[in-house]
Predict the structure.
Amino acid sequence: MQTAESTKQVPTSAEVAVVGGGLAGAGAACVLAKAGREVLLVEREASATHKICGEFLSTETQGYLRQLGLDLDGLGGHVVSHLRLVRENKIVATALPFNGLGLSRYRLDEALLNHACECGAQLWRGQRASVSEISGSIDLDVQNAGTVRADTLFLATGKHDLRELRRNPDTPPEDLVGFKMHFDVESSQREALANHVELVLFDHGYAGLQRVEDGRVNLCLLADGGWLKACGGTWEGLLEELLRICPHLQRRLSNATPLLSQPLTIYRVPYGFVYDPPADSADNIYRLGDQVGVISSFSGDGMGIALHSGVSAATHYLDGSGAGRYHRQIRHDIGSQIWRTGLLYRASRWAPSQRVFMGWAGLMPRSLSLAASLTRVPPSAVTQAMRRML
């Protein structure tokens, strides 16, 4: 296995350069390297890191990881089979239409990066990359390592844009702030969360709560920037107010111990973005993950989209279809899913619609299971992508 420590020099050229070692980039690198292609994978983090994410692996996400050859069972995730929708003191519960898995990005991303190396990709860690020239080939300036000329670029930098290849969404991002924190909770609350993901609605946003590996509990939430300011502009102030207005979260997190030195935060994410390539776009630049589509966190399937895009891009490259055809296909695969999730997300944002939503869910709890199915990558698209891998 090649790692940052064992890789002494970045090559001056590569058939494919993958910038970004998250699920989309590492997944694509696995497919390409297994096919015998020369792959340089550039990851800006020098070691495993936590990422802001609900850390819920859908059945599609699990299927892709297993198909890539990852030993998912050995990573110790927590099986999630049920959903609780919570607002104030009202709770609606239902079985999910599949078994999800709670697993931290800290553990999952590192395992997939290592697996990409085992498949034959060359990994360079702790290095930032920028594009200096796009012509017939692509020149990448890799921090402290010089210029790499690549025939093809897979852009998988997540929510972080390269200056030269910005996404430019049609509408500006909303004033929303995301937070994530892992907790060690009381044993009774850990047991109450067994096999459940909880989606908690409040007047200024929503939060997700579930177990991941080793008994940890992940709290991931999205809140209005104005409300954060009203809470003093700090995580401590926001959490104190959130526990005051959400008795359910107060119960879950009573006497809980934070397990991260500070919360992870993110701001102004362009939810609803789907990449529409211009007519003159280069046919050797493939966008993956959040660079091709950003689904609202309400759905919990950002990881599914990341892996689907990574696998689809790699297989389109391998059969010579080109980036243009890939981008048309991925828009078809994820556009409706992102749109439907956006509707649910907007309904969850405001107090009046939250009450309607809770009333509807209370009358028809199984409709929550249907909503979970409609906000996933379509089964036909997954099947097609998996077949192309074979």
Q: What stands out?
A: The chain is about 35% helix and 25% strand. The chain has a mean pLDDT of 90. The longest helix spans residues 323-349. The CA atoms of residues 82 and 112 lie 27 Å apart.
